[in-house]
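Repro case for the chain-ordering regression, as requested:
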Amino acid sequence: MASITLTINGTEISAVAGESILDAARSAGIAIPTLCHLEGLSEVGACRLCLVEIEGAAKLQPACVTPVAEGMRVRTDSEQLRAYRRMIVELLFAERNHVCSVCVANGHCELQDLAVEVGMDHVRYEYLSPACGVDISHPRFGIDHNRCVLCTRCVRVCDEVEGVHTWDVSGRGARSLVITDLNQPWGAAASCTACGKCVAACPTGAIFSRGATVGEMQHEPARIAAIVNARKERW
Amino acid sequence: MTMDRPRLATVWLGGCSGCHMSFLDLDEWLIDLAGLVDVVYTPIADIKTYPEQVDVALVEGAVANEEHLHTIRLVRERTRLLVAFGDCAVTGNVTALRNPLGGAAGVLQAVYVDGVDLQGQVPAEPGIVPPLLDRVLPVHAVVPVDVYLPGCPPPAARIRAVLEQIIAGETPRLAGREMLKFG
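-- result from build under test --
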């Protein structure tokens, strides 16, 4: 595989041709915040937290879907990027009803961690407080749409790793909802194998094991990469 | 600039008083604190009116009814440094869980009429029970806030760190998991 040299935050690093800026940066020990990215799944570039500055490019580019190029000069951490990242996290909090204190994922939540990381001490935007439903029709799992950030990790893990595609997205914009089968209650979705991969992959308290109470829901996002890596040669 | 015995107030709006309980969790440091500040208003002591010229106010709770609205405006007018104290003050938190149910009438209907088995009725005592606002608001949505101190409740160590900075004449800037985690 061809080796490529690029500069990230003033440091020259080498990367493999075809890999993303995100992968190259992380291999070099440079942290870029992400939310919709999950190792083992395809990239969608949906959350925009990994936006980086590329010298000569007019627009910011998402590091997860932008491949490295020879001589590329990337900046992952500037005043502008920090301001945008905080704005993105605040907008996620304002869009639905994220109440950490009563959430099953309190203390084990990627959104909560991101808020700390970007230094969010309050949300400057008006809370939309939409009336979102909770579906606990499934015998083992539940989904609380109030806590969903629409990262689609559940959709992708179900399609790409379990090979089922029970999950999908309905609607547009802020009114989008993740749905099971043809927008049936999860418990009535005949395609669901109850494998639990969506539970492992969810970054927030949106998808949870039934019976979990405040702070008890610990996801296992690393399990997805472990499954994908273990089966790589045979799949 | 070190303040000359700051005048400290604590205020309780729409919250569960858990933030004040966490404040009491400062244990023996409260004795040191009593030597450093004058506590001029707090629900823990029986002081009826919010005084003039308060240096620091820790405000617990969200703005949920007409009385809170009146109180927070008075507090802002008479206070130099207003601290949003805990998640309800900062985000609305549990107090704001009712917002998706609609305005005050919808919430009262859901709780006092639809949610009961027998003879549901909306309580009404004009002049005694303050009317609910249609929307529960975080403090900064009503008046300017100077410092945000999140947590449900904020751990005692976090409260102490913020108070120590304020007493030392600094405006606290909170960063990192120990100081900034919600919930």
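Ordering looks correct now. The interface with chain B takes residues 93, 97, 99-103, 106-107, 112, 115-116, 119-123, 126-127, 129-132, 146 of chain A (CB under 8 Å).
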